[in-house]
Design goal:
Blueprint lengths: L3 H15 L5 H12 L2 E2 H8 L3 H13 L3 E6 L2 E6 L3 H29 L3
Antiparallel strand pairs: 1-3, 2-3
Helix pairs in contact: 3-4
Length: 115
């Protein structure tokens, strides 16, 4: 049952988390930080973007509470704040993989039947 409370919660979910996950680079940053904390230069190099671009993505992820930042001398080290976001992303990847397998099976069936 869709209640006003559920609607409010889903709206907050979208504003805080889903929109932060709407960019491939930000998802790659989250996976990289899941492996180990890193600074912006290392992240930029690893995901193949410029340092200013990585900084913008990290700022958004930090604003949304998905990563935290801690100064270490001259650099800032970023850390994933909650590993459950990786579990959620892995689950979504599994759903996508199943969908792609189903689509591939349909294409194969249609190809074999001459359609």
């Amino acid at each position: 049952m869709i209640t006003p409370s559920l609607t409010q919660e889903i709206t907050a979910l979208h504003a805080c988390i889903c929109s932060a996950l709407a960019d491939t680079s930000r998802i790659l940053i989250l996976y990289a930080l899941h492996e180990s904390p890193r600074n912006v230069s290392d992240l930029a190099r690893e995901i193949g973007v410029s340092q200013p671009t990585a900084s913008r993505h990290l700022n958004l992820l930090r604003e949304r509470g998905l990563v935290s930042a801690q100064r270490d001398g001259q650099s800032v080290i970023y850390t994933l704040t909650d590993t459950r976001v990786i579990e959620a992303l892995d689950l979504l990847r599994s759903v996508l993989a199943n969908k792609l397998k189903s689509q591939a099976a349909l294409v194969e069936i249609n190809t074999e039947s001459g359609e």
